[in-house]
Amino acid sequence: MVVVAVLLAALLLTACTGPAKKSSSGTSTASSAPGTPVQGGTVTFALQAASTPNYIFPLASGPYFTVANLSQFQALMFRPLYWFGEGGKPVLNPTLSLARPPVYSDGGRVVTMRLKSYRWSDGAPVTSRDVLFWMNLLKANKADWAGYVPGDFPDNVVAMSAPNPSTVVFHLNARYSSRWFTYNELSQITPLPQQAWDRTSAHSPDGSYDKTPAGARAVYRFLNAQAQHLSTYATNPLWQVVDGPWRLAAFTTTGQATFVPNRHYSGPDKPRIARFVELPFTTETAEYDALRAGRLTVGYVPPPDVAQKGLLTQQGYHLYPWVIFGFSFMRINFHNPTLGPVFHQLYVRQALQHLLDQGSFIRHLYHGYAVPTYGPVPVQPSNPFVSPAERHNPYPYSIHAARKLLTSHGWRVAPGRAATCVSPGSGPGHCGAGVSKGTTLVLHLQFASGNPPLQQEVEAFKSSAGQAGIVIDLSSAPANTVIANQAICKPSQPSCSWEIQNYGAGWVYSPDYLPTGGELYATGAGANKGSYSSRTADRLIAATHTSSRLSALYAYENYISRQLPALWQPQADYQITAVKSGLEGVVPQNPYAFLEPARWYFTK
Q1: If you count Cβ atoms within 10 Å of the first and of the last residue's Cβ in the chain, which end, N or C, has fewer?
Q2: Strand runs (DSSP E) across 256-304, as ranges?
């Protein structure tokens, strides 16, 4: 599912010295044994630069479908039905899930989920009715949900029932792979407090409005409208009804969030710290200044400052690379009214990919602590899902290869100038369907500000492209703005003006944890911001939903790798996490970028 649109900072990774040691698994462990755990204390945590939570309602639309919102804000308060990530590995975590592992019957057409004993903070139990409340809202408002893929969830659930308060039964429209349906469909469910949220206005009584499509749409409109008022997040009674280990005590419109333990939390890993504070930063420099000053319990080391890691270890910080299960790319708008026909030409996308010198970026910008991206399945953390073919680059860096692709398809390439289409039309030697004579290769690329390695990367890309006859105009904006500008659109809409967007990352496989790509590249998918469409891709994606064979997944990823629905760029670790001495439980870090501060504790 949502391989969530994610904000991965392109951060330099480094082997850690001093108190922290890098292990063979890619995590680090402190060299000293932990002390005696104590209750209480405040943890201050640095959010990624220019990436802050700005939406509290778990049923999020595209602009809000971010790691900052889903994995590092909402999930602290509202727990998904199934939790993923255990011991740093990209797997289902049965212990932290609200339900026991699902049971499939009737050849995979019926799935039964049995809830554990959890309670909402208002004392009400978490029941099957809360799961159906989520499903009713989702079915009636699926077009507004970023994780929606037509024909998939929730369309593939044709009937559902709650035989008792702890049991939910789904009847499906076909036989599916149980692994895919658990990892990518059931994973998207977040039970919601029906007894507190099933209302159409602030003054309407709680009811059962969600049981009709019209009522469910009215409830969604109300909750979505309430979620727009950031200044009321900590005071609105709606958002205080939680089932997670934390509740929100304070929130600012700039994204600073203060959490305190939910004293009614009935699950494992009950918080031992007294307060957890997420701090926003506009730039990495500002974050590092706060880290050096000792104002952060958990922060990160920006790439330009890695050489000073020794100073941090002297101050009592331990350093841990945070490797997540995702991949990085630049989005392309296939529906742009001017350049859409150009982007539809595979040879143009191939030329652009040949101009991204991933090897050089990894050596010089990330000092070797990054992984090249050759397709939609990550190489790290170690997993069985990446195909042998995707471990090799089908489009190695070559300005000559890029120029040749253009000149052999009807473009005149002159030094220092934008290439011009001189042979319009389809067929060999022509520019391609829809590309008019005189079209020039002048592209606009917007990238996320506050990320020095990313800026260096796009500037190098611009330089190489210029030598191949492609002029790239650059502009920057905060990451949330870049994401919001990536509108799914039709060529006639003003919002379709964007061309290439790069917010420093691409996708974390969450809450679609199996990397089958339906949300990203299926025709009409909610997170398919660039409007990529391919019948072959749709067929290969569909095959990964019904077959548990790795060969089906390999066929999909190998095709997508070479078809380039986006431009692949290096995937760096999410960050180099700096943890102040005396705080334990931070590692291993969740491979899907979830925060798990309920596991953290101070020692004496």
Answers
A1: C
A2: 257-261, 275-279, 298-300
Question: Using an 8 Å Cβ cutoff, are 131 and 113 in contact?
Answer: yes
Question: pLDDT band at 2, cuts 50/70/90?
Answer: very low
The SS3 of residue 371 is: strand
Q: In 15-172, which residue ranges form alpha helices assigned H by DSSP?
A: 67-69, 75-77, 128-140
338 in helix, strand or coil? coil
Give the closest residue to 569 by CA, choosing from 484, 464, 473, 470: 464
**Distance in angstroms (rounded) separating the CA atoms of residues 203 and 178:** 43
**Contacts for 253 with CB less than 8 Å, ≥ 6 apart:** 230, 231
| Tokens (6 digits) for 332 | 């392309």
Alpha-carbon distance of 534 to 54, in angstroms, equals 33
326-572 fold: Dipeptide-binding Protein; domain 3 (3.10.105)
Instruction: Note the pLDDT of residue 34.
Output: 65
- Which of 391-395, 459-463, 477-481, 506-510 has the lowest average pLDDT? 506-510
Beta bridge partners of 92: 84
Q: What is the pTM of this model?
A: 0.81
- With H, G, I as helix, E, B as strand and everything else as coil, classify residue 68: helix
In angstroms, the CA 299 to CA 317 distance is: 9
Give Dmax over CA atoms of the chain in angstroms. 74
Using CA atoms in the order 108, 114, 119, 124, what is the torsion angle rounded to 10 degrees? 90
Interval 284-302 mean pLDDT: 95
The structural domains of the chain, with segments of one domain joined by +, span 326-572
Q: Tokens in use for 361?
A: 């970026």
- Distance, in Å, from the CA atom of 347 to the CA atom of 563, rounded to the nearest integer, reads 10
Distance of CA 540 to CAs 265, 379, 545, Å?
Answer: 42, 21, 9
Asked whether the predicted pLDDT for residue 126 surpasses 60, the reply is yes
pLDDT at residue 367, as a whole number: 74
Q: Are 60 and 69 in contact (CB under 8 A)?
A: yes
- What pLDDT band is residue 26 in, cutting at 50, 70 and 90? very low
Question: What average pLDDT is seen over the chain?
Answer: 91
pLDDT tens digits, one per residue of 135-151: 999 999 999 999 888 89
- Between CA 368 and CA 303 the distance in angstroms is 12
The partner residues of 447 in beta bridges, in order of sequence, read 476, 502
pLDDT of residue 1: 37
Query: Which of the four pLDDT bands, split at 50, 70 and 90, describes residue 573?
Result: confident
DSSP 3-state of 114 = strand
